[in-house]
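## tool: complex_structure
## caller: assistant
## args:
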Amino acid sequence: MSVRTQGGDRRSAAEILSGAKSVATYLLAACVVLGVWWIVAHILYAVRGYSVLPTPAETFRLAITLRGDLAPAFGNSALRFLISIVVAFVLAVPFGLVVGFSRRLHQYVSPLVFLTYPIPPVALLVFLYMAFGTGEAVRVFVVTIALFFQLLVAAMGAARQIPPSFVTSVRSAGATKWGLYKHVVLPATLPSMLTAARVSVGLGITLLYIAETRIGAVGGARSGLGVFIKVHSHAPAEYELSAVVGLALMGLVFYTALELLDRWLCRWRHVGGGGGT
Amino acid sequence: MIEVADLSVAYGTGRRRVLAVDRVSLSVPTGEMGALVGPSGCGKSTILYAVDGLIPPTEGTISVADEPVHGVRRDVALILQDAGLLPWKTVRQNAELALRIQGVGEDVADILNTLGLTGFENSFPAELSEGMKRRVGIARALALHPRVLLMDEPMANLDSLTREHIQKLILDLWKSLRFTALLVTHDIEEAVFLGRHVFVLSRRPARVVEAIANPEAGTAAYRGSDTFVQRVRYLHELLGGVQ
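## result:
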Protein backbone atom coordinates (compact mmCIF):
# COMPACT_ATOMS: atom_id res chain seq x y z
CA MET A 1 0.00 0.00 0.00
CA SER A 2 2.99 2.25 0.61
CA VAL A 3 3.60 2.43 -3.13
CA ARG A 4 0.26 4.07 -3.77
CA THR A 5 0.67 6.48 -0.87
CA GLN A 6 4.14 7.47 -2.04
CA GLY A 7 2.87 7.78 -5.58
CA GLY A 8 -0.09 9.90 -4.43
CA ASP A 9 2.16 12.23 -2.41
CA ARG A 10 4.61 12.47 -5.28
CA ARG A 11 1.77 13.30 -7.67
CA SER A 12 0.29 15.95 -5.36
CA ALA A 13 3.69 17.58 -4.88
CA ALA A 14 4.29 17.53 -8.64
CA GLU A 15 0.84 19.04 -9.28
CA ILE A 16 1.45 21.86 -6.76
CA LEU A 17 4.88 22.55 -8.27
CA SER A 18 3.43 22.53 -11.78
CA GLY A 19 0.62 24.90 -10.72
CA ALA A 20 3.09 27.28 -9.08
CA LYS A 21 5.29 27.23 -12.19
CA SER A 22 2.25 27.97 -14.34
CA VAL A 23 1.24 30.99 -12.20
CA ALA A 24 4.84 32.27 -12.21
CA THR A 25 4.98 31.93 -16.03
CA TYR A 26 1.73 33.90 -16.42
CA LEU A 27 3.01 36.64 -14.08
CA LEU A 28 6.28 36.83 -16.00
CA ALA A 29 4.38 37.02 -19.32
CA ALA A 30 2.17 39.82 -17.92
CA CYS A 31 5.30 41.72 -16.82
CA VAL A 32 6.81 41.32 -20.31
CA VAL A 33 3.61 42.56 -22.01
CA LEU A 34 3.30 45.54 -19.67
CA GLY A 35 7.02 46.30 -20.06
CA VAL A 36 6.86 46.23 -23.88
CA TRP A 37 3.68 48.33 -23.79
CA TRP A 38 5.39 50.90 -21.51
CA ILE A 39 8.51 51.03 -23.75
CA VAL A 40 6.47 51.40 -26.98
CA ALA A 41 4.32 54.14 -25.39
CA HIS A 42 7.45 56.10 -24.43
CA ILE A 43 9.16 55.57 -27.80
CA LEU A 44 6.04 56.80 -29.63
CA TYR A 45 5.85 59.81 -27.33
CA ALA A 46 9.53 60.62 -27.98
CA VAL A 47 9.14 60.20 -31.77
CA ARG A 48 5.82 62.05 -32.25
CA GLY A 49 6.18 64.61 -29.47
CA TYR A 50 2.72 63.86 -28.08
CA SER A 51 0.98 60.88 -26.43
CA VAL A 52 -0.08 58.33 -29.06
CA LEU A 53 -0.31 55.27 -26.88
CA PRO A 54 -1.23 55.73 -23.20
CA THR A 55 1.04 53.97 -20.72
CA PRO A 56 -0.21 50.96 -18.73
CA ALA A 57 -0.37 53.12 -15.58
CA GLU A 58 -2.55 55.75 -17.29
CA THR A 59 -4.83 53.06 -18.72
CA PHE A 60 -5.26 51.17 -15.45
CA ARG A 61 -5.85 54.43 -13.55
CA LEU A 62 -8.69 55.30 -15.94
CA ALA A 63 -10.04 51.73 -15.87
CA ILE A 64 -10.35 51.96 -12.07
CA THR A 65 -12.16 55.30 -12.41
CA LEU A 66 -14.52 53.83 -15.05
CA ARG A 67 -15.05 50.54 -13.26
CA GLY A 68 -18.74 51.33 -12.83
CA ASP A 69 -19.16 51.23 -16.64
CA LEU A 70 -16.46 48.70 -17.48
CA ALA A 71 -17.51 45.97 -15.04
CA PRO A 72 -21.06 45.51 -16.46
CA ALA A 73 -19.63 45.72 -19.99
CA PHE A 74 -17.13 43.00 -19.09
CA GLY A 75 -19.91 40.92 -17.52
CA ASN A 76 -22.18 41.21 -20.56
CA SER A 77 -19.41 40.35 -23.03
CA ALA A 78 -18.25 37.44 -20.89
CA LEU A 79 -21.82 36.13 -20.62
CA ARG A 80 -22.30 36.35 -24.41
CA PHE A 81 -19.04 34.49 -24.95
CA LEU A 82 -19.89 31.86 -22.33
CA ILE A 83 -23.29 31.18 -23.91
CA SER A 84 -21.70 31.02 -27.38
CA ILE A 85 -18.95 28.58 -26.42
CA VAL A 86 -21.29 26.31 -24.43
CA VAL A 87 -23.91 26.20 -27.21
CA ALA A 88 -21.22 25.64 -29.88
CA PHE A 89 -19.62 22.86 -27.80
CA VAL A 90 -22.92 21.12 -27.08
CA LEU A 91 -23.99 21.20 -30.75
CA ALA A 92 -20.68 20.71 -32.56
CA VAL A 93 -18.96 18.03 -30.49
CA PRO A 94 -21.62 15.26 -30.62
CA PHE A 95 -22.35 15.97 -34.28
CA GLY A 96 -18.63 16.06 -35.19
CA LEU A 97 -17.87 12.87 -33.28
CA VAL A 98 -20.73 10.94 -34.90
CA VAL A 99 -19.73 12.15 -38.38
CA GLY A 100 -16.02 11.59 -37.78
CA PHE A 101 -16.46 8.13 -36.28
CA SER A 102 -18.59 6.85 -39.16
CA ARG A 103 -16.67 6.45 -42.39
CA ARG A 104 -19.85 6.60 -44.48
CA LEU A 105 -21.30 9.67 -42.74
CA HIS A 106 -17.94 11.41 -43.00
CA GLN A 107 -17.87 10.71 -46.72
CA TYR A 108 -21.22 12.45 -47.27
CA VAL A 109 -21.21 15.17 -44.61
CA SER A 110 -17.59 16.41 -44.70
CA PRO A 111 -17.85 18.14 -48.14
CA LEU A 112 -20.82 20.11 -46.82
CA VAL A 113 -18.88 21.11 -43.70
CA PHE A 114 -15.72 22.07 -45.58
CA LEU A 115 -17.74 24.16 -48.05
CA THR A 116 -19.50 26.17 -45.34
CA TYR A 117 -16.61 26.28 -42.84
CA PRO A 118 -14.58 29.03 -44.60
CA ILE A 119 -17.52 31.49 -44.81
CA PRO A 120 -16.71 34.26 -42.28
CA PRO A 121 -19.76 34.73 -40.04
CA VAL A 122 -19.13 38.50 -40.07
CA ALA A 123 -19.97 38.50 -43.79
CA LEU A 124 -23.45 37.32 -42.87
CA LEU A 125 -24.06 40.13 -40.36
CA VAL A 126 -26.19 42.23 -42.74
CA PHE A 127 -28.46 39.26 -43.53
CA LEU A 128 -28.67 38.42 -39.83
CA TYR A 129 -29.70 42.01 -38.98
CA MET A 130 -32.42 41.84 -41.61
CA ALA A 131 -33.62 38.41 -40.52
CA PHE A 132 -33.39 38.68 -36.72
CA GLY A 133 -32.95 42.37 -35.96
CA THR A 134 -30.10 43.76 -33.85
CA GLY A 135 -30.87 42.15 -30.52
CA GLU A 136 -28.86 39.93 -28.24
CA ALA A 137 -29.47 36.75 -30.28
CA VAL A 138 -27.58 37.96 -33.33
CA ARG A 139 -24.49 38.92 -31.32
CA VAL A 140 -24.41 35.50 -29.70
CA PHE A 141 -25.22 33.73 -32.98
CA VAL A 142 -22.23 35.24 -34.81
CA VAL A 143 -19.79 34.04 -32.17
CA THR A 144 -21.54 30.68 -31.78
CA ILE A 145 -21.43 29.90 -35.49
CA ALA A 146 -17.69 30.66 -35.68
CA LEU A 147 -16.92 28.50 -32.65
CA PHE A 148 -19.29 25.79 -33.90
CA PHE A 149 -17.30 25.24 -37.09
CA GLN A 150 -13.97 25.31 -35.27
CA LEU A 151 -15.15 22.65 -32.85
CA LEU A 152 -16.98 20.64 -35.50
CA VAL A 153 -13.90 20.28 -37.70
CA ALA A 154 -11.77 19.45 -34.66
CA ALA A 155 -14.28 16.82 -33.47
CA MET A 156 -14.48 15.18 -36.88
CA GLY A 157 -10.68 15.03 -37.10
CA ALA A 158 -10.25 13.74 -33.54
CA ALA A 159 -12.83 10.97 -34.01
CA ARG A 160 -11.07 9.77 -37.13
CA GLN A 161 -7.75 9.47 -35.31
CA ILE A 162 -8.85 7.17 -32.51
CA PRO A 163 -6.42 4.22 -32.43
CA PRO A 164 -8.25 1.08 -33.64
CA SER A 165 -6.89 -0.93 -30.68
CA PHE A 166 -9.05 1.16 -28.28
CA VAL A 167 -12.14 0.33 -30.30
CA THR A 168 -11.22 -3.35 -30.61
CA SER A 169 -10.60 -3.75 -26.89
CA VAL A 170 -13.99 -2.25 -25.99
CA ARG A 171 -15.90 -4.06 -28.75
CA SER A 172 -14.28 -7.30 -27.64
CA ALA A 173 -15.64 -6.67 -24.14
CA GLY A 174 -19.13 -6.65 -25.67
CA ALA A 175 -19.77 -2.90 -25.85
CA THR A 176 -22.77 -1.57 -27.75
CA LYS A 177 -22.52 1.45 -30.07
CA TRP A 178 -23.35 3.74 -27.12
CA GLY A 179 -20.76 1.90 -25.01
CA LEU A 180 -18.14 2.68 -27.66
CA TYR A 181 -18.97 6.38 -27.45
CA LYS A 182 -19.00 6.34 -23.65
CA HIS A 183 -15.80 4.34 -23.10
CA VAL A 184 -13.72 5.33 -26.13
CA VAL A 185 -14.91 8.08 -28.47
CA LEU A 186 -15.77 10.74 -25.89
CA PRO A 187 -12.77 10.31 -23.57
CA ALA A 188 -10.31 9.78 -26.44
CA THR A 189 -11.33 12.99 -28.18
CA LEU A 190 -11.95 15.20 -25.13
CA PRO A 191 -8.35 16.53 -24.99
CA SER A 192 -8.52 17.56 -28.66
CA MET A 193 -11.90 19.18 -28.07
CA LEU A 194 -10.64 21.21 -25.13
CA THR A 195 -7.54 22.23 -27.09
CA ALA A 196 -9.76 23.31 -30.01
CA ALA A 197 -11.94 25.29 -27.59
CA ARG A 198 -8.83 26.99 -26.15
CA VAL A 199 -7.54 27.83 -29.62
CA SER A 200 -10.98 29.18 -30.56
CA VAL A 201 -11.07 31.62 -27.62
CA GLY A 202 -9.04 34.19 -29.60
CA LEU A 203 -11.23 33.87 -32.68
CA GLY A 204 -14.41 33.99 -30.60
CA ILE A 205 -13.36 37.18 -28.80
CA THR A 206 -12.40 38.83 -32.10
CA LEU A 207 -15.84 38.03 -33.48
CA LEU A 208 -17.51 39.16 -30.27
CA TYR A 209 -15.68 42.49 -30.59
CA ILE A 210 -16.80 42.84 -34.23
CA ALA A 211 -20.40 41.85 -33.48
CA GLU A 212 -20.59 44.23 -30.51
CA THR A 213 -19.01 47.20 -32.28
CA ARG A 214 -21.04 46.71 -35.50
CA ILE A 215 -24.36 45.99 -33.82
CA GLY A 216 -23.52 48.39 -31.02
CA ALA A 217 -23.56 51.12 -33.64
CA VAL A 218 -26.87 49.92 -35.07
CA GLY A 219 -29.00 48.66 -32.24
CA GLY A 220 -29.62 49.52 -28.66
CA ALA A 221 -28.90 46.19 -27.02
CA ARG A 222 -27.14 45.82 -23.67
CA SER A 223 -23.57 47.06 -23.30
CA GLY A 224 -20.40 45.11 -23.79
CA LEU A 225 -16.68 45.82 -24.14
CA GLY A 226 -17.06 46.20 -27.92
CA VAL A 227 -19.95 48.62 -27.43
CA PHE A 228 -17.84 50.51 -24.86
CA ILE A 229 -15.02 50.87 -27.42
CA LYS A 230 -17.47 52.05 -30.11
CA VAL A 231 -19.14 54.57 -27.81
CA HIS A 232 -15.76 55.98 -26.69
CA SER A 233 -14.14 56.00 -30.14
CA HIS A 234 -13.73 59.77 -30.01
CA ALA A 235 -12.60 59.88 -26.39
CA PRO A 236 -8.89 59.78 -25.38
CA ALA A 237 -7.17 56.50 -26.25
CA GLU A 238 -7.09 55.37 -22.60
CA TYR A 239 -10.85 54.72 -22.83
CA GLU A 240 -10.53 52.26 -25.72
CA LEU A 241 -7.39 50.70 -24.29
CA SER A 242 -9.03 50.02 -20.94
CA ALA A 243 -11.74 48.02 -22.75
CA VAL A 244 -9.11 46.25 -24.87
CA VAL A 245 -7.37 45.20 -21.66
CA GLY A 246 -10.77 43.95 -20.50
CA LEU A 247 -11.10 41.82 -23.67
CA ALA A 248 -7.59 40.43 -23.13
CA LEU A 249 -8.43 39.60 -19.52
CA MET A 250 -11.63 37.91 -20.64
CA GLY A 251 -9.66 35.77 -23.09
CA LEU A 252 -7.23 34.85 -20.33
CA VAL A 253 -10.08 33.90 -17.98
CA PHE A 254 -11.70 31.57 -20.57
CA TYR A 255 -8.36 30.14 -21.69
CA THR A 256 -7.35 29.42 -18.10
CA ALA A 257 -10.75 27.94 -17.27
CA LEU A 258 -10.45 25.56 -20.25
CA GLU A 259 -6.89 24.70 -19.24
CA LEU A 260 -8.05 23.86 -15.70
CA LEU A 261 -10.94 21.83 -17.13
CA ASP A 262 -8.42 19.88 -19.21
CA ARG A 263 -6.25 19.21 -16.16
CA TRP A 264 -9.29 18.01 -14.21
CA LEU A 265 -11.06 15.94 -16.86
CA CYS A 266 -7.95 14.66 -18.65
CA ARG A 267 -5.75 14.04 -15.63
CA TRP A 268 -4.33 10.96 -17.34
CA ARG A 269 -2.53 13.20 -19.86
CA HIS A 270 -0.53 14.90 -17.17
CA VAL A 271 0.98 11.81 -15.56
CA GLY A 272 3.83 9.57 -16.66
CA GLY A 273 6.96 7.70 -15.73
CA GLY A 274 6.34 3.95 -15.49
CA GLY A 275 8.75 1.74 -13.61
CA GLY A 276 9.29 -1.88 -12.60
CA THR A 277 8.14 -4.92 -14.58
CA MET B 1 -12.91 -26.52 -27.67
CA ILE B 2 -12.16 -24.05 -30.44
CA GLU B 3 -13.19 -25.42 -33.83
CA VAL B 4 -12.51 -23.49 -37.02
CA ALA B 5 -13.67 -25.14 -40.25
CA ASP B 6 -12.85 -23.85 -43.75
CA LEU B 7 -12.67 -20.26 -42.54
CA SER B 8 -12.20 -17.62 -45.21
CA VAL B 9 -12.20 -13.89 -44.51
CA ALA B 10 -12.16 -11.25 -47.25
CA TYR B 11 -12.09 -7.47 -46.89
CA GLY B 12 -13.63 -5.06 -49.39
CA THR B 13 -15.63 -5.80 -52.48
CA GLY B 14 -15.14 -5.94 -56.23
CA ARG B 15 -11.69 -5.02 -57.45
CA ARG B 16 -10.68 -3.90 -53.95
CA ARG B 17 -11.49 -7.28 -52.43
CA VAL B 18 -8.58 -8.70 -50.44
CA LEU B 19 -8.59 -12.28 -49.24
CA ALA B 20 -6.94 -12.34 -45.80
CA VAL B 21 -7.70 -15.91 -44.71
CA ASP B 22 -8.22 -18.83 -47.09
CA ARG B 23 -10.03 -21.99 -45.97
CA VAL B 24 -8.30 -22.34 -42.61
CA SER B 25 -9.29 -25.25 -40.40
CA LEU B 26 -7.94 -25.82 -36.93
CA SER B 27 -8.98 -27.27 -33.64
CA VAL B 28 -7.85 -26.66 -30.06
CA PRO B 29 -9.23 -29.17 -27.50
CA THR B 30 -10.84 -27.90 -24.29
CA GLY B 31 -8.30 -26.79 -21.70
CA GLU B 32 -5.38 -26.76 -24.10
CA MET B 33 -3.37 -24.00 -25.71
CA GLY B 34 -2.91 -23.56 -29.44
CA ALA B 35 -0.46 -21.23 -31.16
CA LEU B 36 -0.75 -19.59 -34.56
CA VAL B 37 2.61 -18.71 -36.03
CA GLY B 38 3.32 -17.20 -39.41
CA PRO B 39 4.89 -14.31 -41.30
CA SER B 40 4.01 -10.72 -40.38
CA GLY B 41 0.74 -9.56 -41.88
CA CYS B 42 -0.27 -13.06 -42.98
CA GLY B 43 -3.72 -12.92 -41.35
CA LYS B 44 -3.05 -14.45 -37.91
CA SER B 45 -4.86 -11.68 -36.05
CA THR B 46 -7.77 -11.84 -38.50
CA ILE B 47 -8.32 -15.49 -37.55
CA LEU B 48 -8.20 -14.57 -33.86
CA TYR B 49 -10.68 -11.69 -34.28
CA ALA B 50 -13.00 -13.99 -36.21
CA VAL B 51 -12.89 -16.51 -33.34
CA ASP B 52 -13.67 -13.62 -30.95
CA GLY B 53 -16.70 -12.71 -33.09
CA LEU B 54 -15.34 -9.29 -34.04
CA ILE B 55 -15.00 -10.17 -37.73
CA PRO B 56 -17.69 -12.22 -39.47
CA PRO B 57 -16.40 -15.10 -41.60
CA THR B 58 -16.86 -14.71 -45.33
CA GLU B 59 -17.06 -18.49 -45.54
CA GLY B 60 -16.72 -21.36 -43.11
CA THR B 61 -17.76 -21.84 -39.51
CA ILE B 62 -16.32 -21.20 -36.07
CA SER B 63 -17.53 -22.76 -32.88
CA VAL B 64 -16.46 -22.35 -29.28
CA ALA B 65 -17.55 -24.88 -26.65
CA ASP B 66 -19.75 -26.55 -29.29
CA GLU B 67 -21.68 -23.33 -29.95
CA PRO B 68 -21.35 -21.42 -33.21
CA VAL B 69 -19.78 -17.97 -32.95
CA HIS B 70 -22.11 -15.20 -34.18
CA GLY B 71 -20.60 -12.17 -32.49
CA VAL B 72 -18.79 -11.33 -29.27
CA ARG B 73 -19.37 -13.83 -26.44
CA ARG B 74 -19.04 -13.27 -22.74
CA ASP B 75 -17.07 -16.48 -22.20
CA VAL B 76 -14.39 -15.53 -24.73
CA ALA B 77 -11.78 -12.89 -23.83
CA LEU B 78 -9.19 -11.21 -26.01
CA ILE B 79 -5.80 -9.82 -25.03
CA LEU B 80 -4.44 -7.34 -27.55
CA GLN B 81 -0.86 -6.82 -28.63
CA ASP B 82 -0.34 -3.58 -26.68
CA ALA B 83 -2.78 -4.74 -23.97
CA GLY B 84 -5.39 -2.37 -25.46
CA LEU B 85 -5.54 -0.35 -22.26
CA LEU B 86 -7.55 2.85 -22.30
CA PRO B 87 -5.14 5.59 -21.15
CA TRP B 88 -7.90 7.64 -19.48
CA LYS B 89 -8.90 4.78 -17.18
CA THR B 90 -6.99 3.73 -14.09
CA VAL B 91 -5.65 0.20 -13.59
CA ARG B 92 -8.80 -0.77 -11.69
CA GLN B 93 -11.13 0.81 -14.26
CA ASN B 94 -9.28 -0.92 -17.11
CA ALA B 95 -9.36 -4.26 -15.33
CA GLU B 96 -13.09 -4.03 -14.65
CA LEU B 97 -14.01 -2.64 -18.09
CA ALA B 98 -15.53 -5.87 -19.40
CA LEU B 99 -17.37 -6.41 -16.10
CA ARG B 100 -18.91 -2.94 -16.24
CA ILE B 101 -19.86 -3.27 -19.91
CA GLN B 102 -21.51 -6.59 -19.16
CA GLY B 103 -23.23 -5.13 -16.11
CA VAL B 104 -21.46 -7.44 -13.64
CA GLY B 105 -20.84 -5.86 -10.24
CA GLU B 106 -17.89 -8.09 -9.31
CA ASP B 107 -14.71 -6.68 -7.75
CA VAL B 108 -11.31 -7.08 -9.42
CA ALA B 109 -9.20 -6.83 -6.25
CA ASP B 110 -8.38 -10.56 -6.23
CA ILE B 111 -7.26 -10.75 -9.84
CA LEU B 112 -5.18 -7.57 -9.44
CA ASN B 113 -3.59 -9.12 -6.38
CA THR B 114 -2.85 -12.36 -8.26
CA LEU B 115 -1.14 -10.37 -10.98
CA GLY B 116 0.91 -8.29 -8.54
CA LEU B 117 -0.92 -5.04 -9.25
CA THR B 118 -2.11 -4.28 -5.74
CA GLY B 119 -1.08 -0.74 -4.84
CA PHE B 120 -1.38 0.44 -8.43
CA GLU B 121 -5.19 0.36 -8.70
CA ASN B 122 -5.42 4.13 -9.08
CA SER B 123 -2.47 4.52 -11.43
CA PHE B 124 -2.96 5.39 -15.09
CA PRO B 125 -1.36 3.24 -17.83
CA ALA B 126 1.15 6.03 -18.55
CA GLU B 127 2.52 5.51 -15.03
CA LEU B 128 3.16 1.78 -15.58
CA SER B 129 6.01 -0.18 -17.14
CA GLU B 130 5.28 -2.24 -20.27
CA GLY B 131 5.23 -5.47 -18.26
CA MET B 132 2.68 -4.03 -15.82
CA LYS B 133 0.49 -2.84 -18.70
CA ARG B 134 0.44 -6.38 -20.12
CA ARG B 135 -0.54 -7.71 -16.70
CA VAL B 136 -3.44 -5.25 -16.55
CA GLY B 137 -4.49 -6.48 -20.01
CA ILE B 138 -4.43 -10.05 -18.69
CA ALA B 139 -6.40 -9.00 -15.59
CA ARG B 140 -9.09 -7.42 -17.77
CA ALA B 141 -9.35 -10.55 -19.90
CA LEU B 142 -9.59 -12.85 -16.89
CA ALA B 143 -12.02 -10.68 -14.92
CA LEU B 144 -15.02 -12.31 -16.60
CA HIS B 145 -13.66 -15.83 -15.94
CA PRO B 146 -13.60 -16.75 -19.65
CA ARG B 147 -13.66 -20.31 -20.91
CA VAL B 148 -11.57 -19.26 -23.89
CA LEU B 149 -8.66 -16.82 -23.89
CA LEU B 150 -7.46 -15.37 -27.19
CA MET B 151 -4.07 -13.65 -27.19
CA ASP B 152 -2.84 -11.43 -30.01
CA GLU B 153 0.94 -11.25 -29.56
CA PRO B 154 0.66 -10.40 -25.85
CA MET B 155 4.44 -10.46 -25.41
CA ALA B 156 5.32 -8.31 -28.46
CA ASN B 157 7.83 -5.48 -27.97
CA LEU B 158 8.88 -6.64 -24.51
CA ASP B 159 12.46 -7.13 -23.38
CA SER B 160 13.49 -10.78 -23.02
CA LEU B 161 13.27 -10.86 -19.21
CA THR B 162 9.79 -9.32 -19.10
CA ARG B 163 8.71 -11.56 -21.98
CA GLU B 164 9.74 -14.69 -20.03
CA HIS B 165 8.04 -13.32 -16.93
CA ILE B 166 4.75 -12.80 -18.79
CA GLN B 167 5.05 -16.20 -20.51
CA LYS B 168 5.43 -17.85 -17.10
CA LEU B 169 2.53 -15.84 -15.76
CA ILE B 170 0.27 -16.96 -18.62
CA LEU B 171 1.36 -20.57 -18.11
CA ASP B 172 0.67 -20.42 -14.36
CA LEU B 173 -2.77 -18.91 -14.95
CA TRP B 174 -3.54 -21.46 -17.64
CA LYS B 175 -2.55 -24.32 -15.35
CA SER B 176 -4.66 -23.03 -12.48
CA LEU B 177 -7.69 -21.81 -14.44
CA ARG B 178 -7.57 -24.32 -17.31
CA PHE B 179 -9.08 -22.11 -19.95
CA THR B 180 -8.75 -23.01 -23.61
CA ALA B 181 -6.33 -20.63 -25.26
CA LEU B 182 -5.28 -19.57 -28.72
CA LEU B 183 -2.10 -17.54 -29.01
CA VAL B 184 -1.00 -15.53 -32.03
CA THR B 185 2.72 -14.91 -32.23
CA HIS B 186 5.47 -14.36 -34.75
CA ASP B 187 8.00 -15.68 -32.25
CA ILE B 188 8.72 -19.33 -33.04
CA GLU B 189 10.25 -20.15 -29.64
CA GLU B 190 7.23 -18.67 -27.89
CA ALA B 191 4.85 -20.71 -30.06
CA VAL B 192 6.76 -23.93 -29.34
CA PHE B 193 7.11 -23.17 -25.62
CA LEU B 194 3.43 -22.38 -25.06
CA GLY B 195 1.39 -24.09 -27.78
CA ARG B 196 0.48 -27.74 -27.52
CA HIS B 197 -0.93 -27.38 -31.00
CA VAL B 198 1.15 -25.20 -33.29
CA PHE B 199 -0.44 -24.07 -36.55
CA VAL B 200 2.02 -22.77 -39.11
CA LEU B 201 0.46 -20.29 -41.51
CA SER B 202 1.44 -19.29 -45.02
CA ARG B 203 1.86 -15.74 -46.32
CA ARG B 204 -1.35 -13.83 -47.01
CA PRO B 205 -3.89 -15.15 -47.61
CA ALA B 206 -3.33 -17.29 -44.52
CA ARG B 207 -3.56 -21.03 -45.01
CA VAL B 208 -2.51 -23.72 -42.55
CA VAL B 209 0.78 -25.08 -43.92
CA GLU B 210 1.21 -27.59 -41.12
CA ALA B 211 -0.34 -28.42 -37.76
CA ILE B 212 2.25 -29.71 -35.32
CA ALA B 213 1.44 -31.67 -32.18
CA ASN B 214 3.63 -30.35 -29.35
CA PRO B 215 2.46 -32.22 -26.23
CA GLU B 216 5.49 -31.28 -24.11
CA ALA B 217 4.66 -27.56 -24.28
CA GLY B 218 3.86 -25.65 -21.13
CA THR B 219 6.55 -26.94 -18.80
CA ALA B 220 9.60 -25.00 -17.69
CA ALA B 221 11.86 -28.00 -18.33
CA TYR B 222 10.77 -28.17 -21.96
CA ARG B 223 12.54 -24.95 -22.92
CA GLY B 224 16.11 -25.85 -23.76
CA SER B 225 15.41 -29.58 -24.20
CA ASP B 226 16.56 -31.37 -27.39
CA THR B 227 12.96 -31.80 -28.57
CA PHE B 228 12.30 -28.08 -28.06
CA VAL B 229 15.41 -27.08 -30.00
CA GLN B 230 14.58 -29.50 -32.83
CA ARG B 231 11.01 -28.26 -33.11
CA VAL B 232 12.14 -24.64 -33.11
CA ARG B 233 14.67 -25.43 -35.83
CA TYR B 234 12.08 -27.31 -37.86
CA LEU B 235 9.64 -24.40 -37.62
CA HIS B 236 12.39 -21.96 -38.64
CA GLU B 237 13.03 -24.05 -41.76
CA LEU B 238 9.32 -24.36 -42.46
CA LEU B 239 8.68 -20.63 -42.09
CA GLY B 240 11.86 -19.84 -44.06
CA GLY B 241 10.28 -21.74 -46.94
CA VAL B 242 6.98 -19.96 -46.42
CA GLN B 243 8.59 -16.49 -46.44
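## assistant note: The interface with chain A takes residues 49, 52, 54, 72, 74, 77-78, 80-82, 84-89, 97-98, 101-102, 118-133, 140, 161-162, 165 of chain B (CB under 8 Å). Chain B has two domains: 2-75+151-242, 87-145. Handing back to user.
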